[in-house]
What we know:
Elements: E1 2-6, E2 9-13, H1 16-25, E3 34-39, H2 41-49, H3 51-59, E4 62-65, H4 68-78, H5 87-101, E5 104-109, H6 114-125, E6 130-134, H7 145-158, E7 162-166, H8 171-178, E8 187-190, H9 194-199, H10 207-212, H11 215-222, H12 227-253
Parallel strand pairs: 3-4, 3-8, 5-6, 5-7, 7-8
Antiparallel strand pairs: 1-2
Amino acid sequence: MIKTKLLNLPLNITNKSEILEYLEKNKNVVSEFMHIVSINSENMMIALKNHEFQRVIAKSYAQIIDGEGVIIAIQLLNRFKLKRTTGVVMMDTLIKYAAKYSLTCLLIGGTDDLAKRVVDCYQKNRTQLKIKSCSGFSDIKNPTKREQQKIKQIVDSVKPCFVFVSFGSPYQEIWINKNKAIFNKSLVMGVGGAFAMLSGEVPRAPKWVQRMGAEWLFRLILQPWRIRRQLKLLQFVYLVFQEKLRQIITRLND
């Protein structure tokens, strides 16, 4: 793992290879609550304004870097390169790993029956896969006790090794942290729109677009309503260049 800071936000960065290595060293047993947070330019901007989200990121086991913008920013400001690990790739990798080693997965959230459709997609080719789904909340900002209790009962029954939560950031990360007691032996990730991609509801960007780190642009073309969210990318770029200018001025004055 790499410990660093970006725009004064402490990060403990991991990647797909390190997580798989951890699992193999521990004989595929998750013996504690492990919260993996996916970081991109958009939720970086949210974290800078949302102190609760900041605390959740700081308390999480580690973060994976989902956005190419964050990779470039860390390289520009901190002068080292990182491996990019998208949330959807990490989720897909862990589910396939679970199938190989007979581990249990649980999908929580998504609209309508989206989580169940993801489960059905995986079980078509991996009938031995132990994977379950459950719906989330009608309103994530105001979850009811009944909804909370239902999820707790399912978690207690399934005893999942890997849990993937799709409520959108930062709600999913804050909810995971608040409910960490029920996930005491699980690796838990908030995966945002990964359910929609893995179910085929939203097309994945072509491989060459993924290699360029331009999935955000591909999704924006498919979903123009995301333009307001993408404006956070411009704010992020502004803050990164502002910080780089500060670094240069500091070096000149030393």
